[in-house]
Amino acid sequence: MTKGCIQEEYINAKLEREKKVSVYIGNGVAIPHGIGGSEKYILKSGISFLQIPKGISFGEGKTAYLVIGIAGIEDEHLDILAKIAVACSDINKVKCLRNASLKEKIKEILEI
Question: Gene3D superfamilies per the record (predicted)?
């Protein structure tokens, strides 16, 4: 919200998605994003990137150390989601992301 990408209602839509289907994708990564119909709360495309060294439980033994929230307008949503999912399917890239301290390095790894 602080970057002006979303309205507060989009956060609630992300929480609703997690109640229906986990946003945990494996390799210690979760990608929260809204449910259908929530795109009206997106002002512009963007991502939020959180490194959680101790991890956060997504139940059933699934722990996320990276939480990458996305908000995309129209087809950008799927493009952003696909790029992040592909990058995070590579455990070596995930390890780099967990330790990255520069925004530019994170963007380079995620190819966004």
Answer: Mannitol-specific EII, Chain A
